[in-house]
Amino acid sequence: MSSVLPTSMQLSPEVLEAAGVSKAWPFEEAKKIIKRYQGRDFPDVVLFETGYGPSGLPHIGTFGEVARTTMVRHAFHVLTENKVATKLLCFSDDMDGMRKIPDNVPDRAFLEPHLHKPLTSVPNPFGGDYESFGHHNNAMLRRFLDTFGFDYTFASATDYYKQGRFDAMLLLAAERYDQIMKVMLPTLGAERQATYSPFLPISPKTGRVLYVPMKNVDAKEGTITFDDEDGEETTLPITGGRVKLQWKPDFGMRWAALDVDFEMFGKDHQTNQVIYDRICSILSGKPPEHFVYELFLDENGEKISKSKGNGITIDEWLAYAPTESLSLYMFQKPRTAKRLYFDVIPKAVDEYYTYLAAYRRQDAKAQLDNPVWHIHSGNPPAVELPVPFALLLNLVSASNAQNKDVLWGFISRYAPGVTAETHPELDRLTGYAIRYFDDFVKPTKTFRAPDEVERQALSDLSDTLGDLPAGADGEAIQNAALNVARRIERYQDHNKKSPEGGPGVSVAFFAMIYQVLIGQERGPRFGSFAALYGIGETRALIVKALAGELK
Where does ATP bind (predicted)? Predict the structure, then answer.
């Protein structure tokens, strides 16, 4: 997923016109950046930034921020006809003190003595060659971003502070200390006001980040004076990584120091946005354009957290679905809170391929509103997928397939000429389907015995399927099933009309089929499933259900 326009992509007049009027949110955000420079030249590099707090392992929310920013960056490239250089800086706040020990580390006691030290000074509890907890987590972030092919530059707060890249801003913050305090103090309670300082010294004795009041801030000398943990009065230069800023002033300082043009952040930061902006302005910077996205929730509706390790991890999603499905999930409704748990994966996979199939039939305007255009930086691949992912899952469920060869036996019969070699994308999905079924569907399968009405309905369905000609397609099978249901009072829906004018068919009929035959509450269109699985195999499944062999 590159944020740089492919050289093969032609920015035709149709594409440029469509981009100018597109209401897709990445274009809306990119237009804000262009307006930011209205009447003046763009800088040598327009800077996009994302932030990462390495207090825990990176999660999918972290990926989402980079993916979404990349989409805005690409939209900006198109609107400026690829004539303006850009850069995406992924910034790690790894100099922050470790305020608490994450729940998902292998040995919590190992980290106890290192509370409040900068994350890059905390020993690595995971083993390996990484020199600290922060370095390990930074490496995990880069590994994931590299897996997706993002075009980015990684930045470490520890490096920037220690290398003096923030020194000028820290000295300016000391000079304008009172102005910063006027912004911060009203946001704090009375007790916190009495001890607050935007400067956090790193204790030269314990190595911990200290939240202590300042006895003196000397802007001319560039020093701060405070009492260290043992009570001894200490004076430190505020430069060279000996002192850092509290996280809220740090946000604004970084924007000013780096001339950031665009940064998005979660809704939990929204109330602090005005603080970040004011600090940036006090330090003679121009606040970047913002985009506030809603938070991701776990299966219990709670915010996902790096330290808790709840929700889905990066590697877990990728074990069950292609990367593009995750990118789609990030694109859709970024200002709406969404559950980020395993049960969203199948729908995301099928939606991705549905959008991909539609793309080639669309005009330029519709293509630029299509999520796959943004996922693939304007150059979506041409992929044919004869079998949807949801249907593959049900095929695995009915056939108890443990390997891809079994599935391909059904697929090749259903779609002659389609093989793993001719359709590698479908072959990739068969592996995901087996893994997802084994881990999430199989443990929850619950077959139920049919009652007398259901037994008769299934028996009639089997007989009707047997009367169909060999090779009947999904539509013919679906219509045959509907004809069976229309004759049974329980499944008649008088709010719908059949083609003949009689009552339609209740969804309860197909729900019954999946509950009895597959042990699931729902499934894809029955006709498509039976065509793929095979009429003979579907009838045999009915026989087993009526004999009680499935339950």
Answer: 306
pLDDT confidence bin for 304, thresholds 50/70/90:
low
CATH of residue 59: 3.40.50
pTM of the entire structure? 0.88
| 10 has pLDDT over 70 | no
Indicate the length of the chain as a whole number: 551
Shared-domain flag, residues 427 and 466: no
Q: How far apart are CA 354 and CA 515, in angstroms?
A: 27
Handedness of CA 73, 75, 79, 82 (dihedral sign): positive
404 annotated to a ligand binding site: no
Between CA 413 and CA 411 the distance in angstroms is 5
pLDDT in tens, 192-232: 999 999 999 999 999 999 999 999 999 999 999 999 999 99
Question: Is 84 contained in some domain?
Answer: yes
Q: Which residues pair with 53 in a beta bridge?
A: none
The pLDDT tens digits of the residues spanning 314-362 come to 788 889 999 999 999 999 999 998 888 888 999 999 999 999 999 999 9
Residue 458: which domain range? 452-546
Q: Smallest Cα–Cα separation from 367: which of 18, 25, 107? A: 18
Give every strand in the sheet of 46-52, ordered side by side: 153-156, 86-92, 46-52, 262-266, 289-293
Residues 6+ apart with CB under 8 A from 38: none
pLDDT at 260 over 60: yes
Whether 274 is covered by a domain: the verdict is: no
